[in-house]
Design goal:
single chain; 5-stranded parallel β-sheet
């Protein structure tokens, strides 16, 4: 027999609600006007019914109206992201392939929508949106991060972009990259994550830590490097490792 204990309850079913919410908004981004309006009305009902208590200083309907007002701006940004994918990835055969098959593009799309809600002061929902995308793609982008235009994620699995990270325009990031914090203390308003300037490429499994770290424009960060200090513009950072090969039958 289970002993009776008083626990605080939580609506964990909201996870499924947010999954549906993300899917509807993603579809709406690329639908014709009629279907887009239907999907946005459905998303608004979910938003008003499930997340009203997480909104400060405004009504849920007003907040969602502000979101829909900038919805096409998100689509324009995503089109620029998709063009960057097609241009930088030799495996991309078309823009349609990017929209339909690339997990990195889906993660960026959800981030850009969640970032709007984050800017409007909505609590919980933006984080749930990006965590849902994280569970699908393996790409963890905090909705508070600031990301510029033409952002390219290749492969993507294992990428972590922290809350106060700032990423410029035309930045490329490969799988396993961490833009993280070097401190563990909670301090409201403190910048804990690095700044990546325009036209930077960061290759697989690089780790860049610290809120005062700036990676200068046009820099290439090689695979597997660990960075805790700023890098000047026009740099190339590499990790040197020794590999020794010995034939089995060599004397």
């Amino acid at each position: 027999m289970i002993q009776k204990t008083t626990f605080k309850t939580y609506n964990v079913g909201l996870k499924n609600v947010v999954h549906s919410f993300n899917e509807d908004l993603f579809k709406a981004l690329f639908s014709d006007e009629r279907e887009q309006n239907l999907l946005l009305r459905k998303a608004q009902r979910i938003f008003v019914n499930s997340f009203s208590k997480y909104i400060s200083d405004q009504s849920a309907k007003e907040c969602f109206s502000r979101f829909t007002y900038r919805f096409l701006d998100v689509r324009e940004k995503l089109d620029r992201d998709a063009i960057a994918f097609e241009r930088k990835d030799p495996a991309a055969k078309s823009l349609e392939e990017v929209y339909l098959a690339y997990p990195g593009f889906f993660a960026i799309a959800v981030y850009r929508m969640a970032h709007l809600f984050h800017q409007y002061g909505v609590e919980l929902l933006p984080r749930m949106m990006t965590e849902n995308a994280h569970s699908i793609t393996g790409i963890d982008i905090h909705p508070g991060a600031q990301i510029g235009d033409s952002f390219f994620i290749d492969h993507g699995t294992g990428i972590v972009i922290g809350e106060t990270a700032v990423i410029g325009n035309n930045v490329s990031i490969y799988q396993g990259v961490t833009l993280g914090g070097i401190k563990v203390e909670k301090s409201m308003g403190e910048k804990r994550h690095p700044t990546i300037e325009d036209h930077v490429t960061i290759y697989a499994n690089a780790t860049i830590l610290g809120g005062d770290i700036i990676i200068g424009r046009n820099t290439v960060v090689g695979a597997n490097v660990w960075i805790t200090k700023s890098i000047p513009p026009e740099s190339v950072i590499t990790h040197q490792s020794q590999i020794k090969i010995k034939l089995k039958n060599a004397e």
